[in-house]
Amino acid sequence: MAEKEILRVENLNKYFGDHHVLKNINLRVRQGEHVVIFGPSGSGKSTLLRCMNLLEEPQSGSLFFLGKDYGPKAPKKTWPWQSNDGLADPRYLRTHIGMVFQQFNLFPHLTVLDNVTLALRRTKKIPRPEANEKAMKQLKSVGLEHKAQAYPSQLSGGQQQRVAIARALVMEPRLMLFDEPTSALDPELVGEVLAVMKDLALGGMTMVVVTHEMGFAREVGDHLVFMDDGNIVEEGGPEVLVNPTNDRTKMFIKAIL
Amino acid sequence: MKREFQFRWDFVYDRWELLAKGLGMTLYVSFLGMILALALGLLIANLRMSKFALLRWLAQAYINIFRAIPLFVFIIWMYYGLPIVLGIDFDPITAGVLCLALQYAGWLAEIYRSGIGAIGKGQREAALSLGLTRFQSFWDVIFPQAFRIMLPPMGNQFVGMLKDSSLVGIIGVFELVRQAQLAVSQTFRPFEFYTAIAIIYIILTQLLSQGVSVLERRQQV
User: Fold this and answer.
1) Which of A50, B39, B89, B163 lies at 20 to 30 Å from A86 by C-alpha?
2) Domain region containing B67
3) Domain-embedded: residue B3
4) Which residues of chain B are at the A interface, by a Cβ-Cβ cutoff of 8 Å?
5) Phi, psi angles (nearest 5°) of residue B116
């Protein structure tokens, strides 16, 4: 696989106070790749994902997105009046990386349609009619065009998460991050969200997914990463799930299957 | 023996223009004070939530000090004290409005802070993750949600300011109470005039809470 690299994490370290959450993490995400990160809670997998779009700022290391460093060493664009010359603009990164949260985080005061169009209108300055058109197409792709005028509180958890996915996708991101997207859902609603994610994967979207859904990992994942205590303990193709080499991985997989 | 008291509302009726002028001044001072307090309170609330300890400390000090000073003292101090100490000379209306605004900004800052604090950090993260600026995240996502929570306590503050604005009468701003005092000194009918302005305050407060309820209902989803 000589596909283009989208994201590369190099020697990344993250501390919360004295707690060393991420210990010298190295990870590469290539175009079209479906990375699945799994491991026990507290292993740092969500923090790693959140570092990828700078919701968490790592203390050291590099974060390359499309070849440009956004890590702590890179001079950052902090204020709108700064020129772009040579500065890493976290907003550029975030505009091109979509994120789906465990708790959906839809905007409760906006309709489903406005949830999906807000970033188009604000970030890309697309006028409302055109933004609405794009949003309706995206809502249709997750099967929720009939809910466009509803408010998030009127939807089921599964529907909310599908709207959240549409909200991220409408920005046409180069990479999608999923932070335990089904963990807050009733078991019967998990399927509809996973189905949308599978469609997305089949369509060639580059994805990094933190999940406990091992069925999904086996089916969709082509680069599996097992994390424990802030380290990447083991990584590889789907065979990691069948024949783990590391004892910690073996234990974890045995425990959850 | 019970003394017969005759209400003489005709005195009030004859001087309704005085009260109307006073009402206008009361509204002017309170609205201006409230607008300034809303803006300043928001600024202080943001400082209070800043990531820099010094700014947080300054905002907290502001809140502690300005909320503690009795408005009466503050107004006297601003109008009579500042010219002596610093040579800053305000006209009575400016001094009064400033005092109301500075004091209420402290209260409002705390209301802003609790309202904004009640919005989960996931909302801000979702907004930022979509590429919105911090400013857009605040105005498009956080503030509209916090506003719903803040509206009732802000309405209460406004009612408080409406009544507190009577204190600026002491430096010669002819608002409702001061006008009533003037009318009383001309007619010796205190009971009628003070009852009349009490009724006006009740009506104002009613109108205001009605307005807040309408706004609240419009915000409801």
Assistant:
1) A50
2) 13-220
3) no
4) 120, 122-123, 125-133, 136, 140-141, 144-145, 148, 219, 221
5) -70, -35
